[in-house]
Every structure is written in C-alpha cells, then in structure tokens.
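Example S7 (structure tokens).
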C-alpha cells in the first residue's frame, strides 16, 4: 500500500501555491465560485495535459475513475463536465 504522495501531487508541489493564490485574489478569479475553485480547475487541466486527455468528457471520466484519490491529488471540488465547462466559460 502506498504511504506517500501520489506522483501527480509530487509534480504539483513544484508549483508555488501561495503565488498562485496571490494572482487569483489580485484578478478576483474565485469571485462567485462556490465549489470549484481556480486551484481545482488548474489541477484538473494540468492532469488532463499530463495524461493526454482530449475532451471534457474524457477528463471527467478519467478523474471520476480515480475518485477515491482526488483528495490526495489536491482536488477538492466536484468534478463534472458542467463544472469544467462553466469555469472555462466564465473565467
């Protein structure tokens, strides 16, 4: 059984989250966001890039298949095609 971090979280640990949060607050990126933050969107899109996903449906299916590991990957929001498309449209 794995006792450490997932490989995805190890890769994302190189991204300085405090600088990311400063930029999000400066540009009001999380304005009127309830469940799916900019950080969650960034992690989903980074995961999609690293795993060569081609569509929103593909991203959703792949992330939902790992639903028990999402929290350990750093994704706390609800993953759905609707959330991914609305966040992209409104940002």
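Recovered sequence:
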């Amino acid at each position: 059984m794995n006792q450490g971090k997932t490989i995805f979280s190890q890769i994302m640990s190189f991204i300085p989250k405090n600088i990311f949060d400063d930029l999000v607050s400066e540009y009001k990126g999380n304005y009127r966001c309830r469940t799916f933050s900019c950080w969650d969107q960034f992690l989903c899109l980074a995961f999609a890039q690293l795993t060569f996903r081609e569509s929103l449906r593909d991203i959703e299916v792949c992330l939902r298949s790992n639903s028990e590991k999402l929290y350990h990957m750093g994704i706390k929001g609800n993953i759905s095609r609707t959330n991914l498309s609305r966040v992209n449209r409104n940002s």
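Notes on this example. The two ends are 39 Å apart (CA to CA).
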